[in-house]
């Protein structure tokens, strides 16, 4: 059975915790700007800053609450299974059984190595499965095998399917890396902001608010660079003309991402101190 990834199946409490973590980081950046030496925000009314902060928290909380209950909560109940005779698609409202012989076509609206979904059209309707479906690459491979054995290869385009398979594979692997390093990334971001506040407090760096933002973004830039580099290797691991990919070493990829995050942060500190 294939389900959507755990961050989409999370409870409302999980989302509340995520909001608090992100807002606390934003608040730290704001306070750092206010208390930094030479900051133009020093004369700002602190009560106004507090009111804006509380108002922003309430607004974002309400917004995320609506997003969760209107769009995200449904992912907890969605799953799909490849049975012997049909695709079984379940959501909160109903169960959809799609016999393989009823499949009319499969489309893949997507941006390579970025995101998208596969659309399965059948007699009576269609379903969409996004790249955030856990192990969607494996799902595609198994579905293709079933259709080929039944002589139903005409319902999909080989080249487009293969291209989407590479995107789906990269998405699967990317999310697994995120789950491994997100705590590390957040920790480095917090640490970077604290370092920026400390350095600006003692006048080591100039243009303080901008510096704090740069310090905050530095770890994320390192992470994005690691994803780009790792992403270029995915196509080399995919076996051409087959829906198969050579296994990767997740621990090595995670270590590589951690190193680039740390290096990016250190380079940022070095450059900002010299400026």
UniProtKB/TrEMBL annotation:
The chain crosses the membrane at residues 12-35, 47-71, 184-205, 211-235, 256-274. It comes from the Bacteria. Keywords: Membrane, Transmembrane, Transmembrane helix. This is Uncharacterized protein. It comes from Clostridium sartagoforme.
């Amino acid at each position: 059975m294939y389900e959507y990834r755990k961050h989409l199946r999370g409870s409302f409490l999980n989302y509340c915790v995520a909001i608090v973590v992100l807002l606390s980081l934003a608040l730290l950046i704001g306070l750092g700007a206010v208390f930094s030496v030479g900051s133009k925000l020093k004369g700002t009314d602190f009560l106004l800053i507090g009111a804006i902060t509380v108002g922003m928290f309430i607004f974002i909380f309400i917004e995320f609450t609506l997003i969760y209950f209107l769009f995200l909560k449904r992912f907890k109940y969605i799953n799909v299974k490849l049975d012997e005779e049909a695709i079984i698609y379940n959501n909160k409202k109903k169960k959809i059984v799609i016999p393989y012989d009823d499949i009319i076509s499969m489309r893949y609206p997507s941006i390579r190595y970025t995101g998208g979904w596969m659309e399965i059209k059948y007699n009576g309707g269609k379903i969409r499965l996004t790249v955030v479906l856990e192990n969607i690459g494996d799902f595609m491979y198994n579905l293709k095998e079933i259709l080929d054995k039944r002589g139903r290869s005409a319902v999909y385009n080989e080249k487009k399917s293969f291209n989407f398979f590479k995107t789906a594979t990269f998405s699967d692997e990317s999310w697994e890396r995120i789950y491994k390093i997100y705590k590390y990334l957040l920790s480095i971001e917090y640490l970077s902001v604290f370092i920026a506040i400390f350095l600006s407090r003692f006048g080591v760096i100039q243009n303080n608010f901008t510096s704090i933002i740069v310090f905050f973004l530095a770890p994320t830039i390192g992470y994005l660079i690691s994803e780009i580099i790792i992403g270029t290797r995915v196509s080399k691991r995919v076996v051409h003309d087959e829906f198969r990919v050579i296994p990767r070493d997740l621990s090595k990829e995670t270590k590589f991402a951690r190193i680039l995050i740390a290096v990016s942060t250190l380079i940022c500190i070095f450059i900002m101190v010299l400026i």
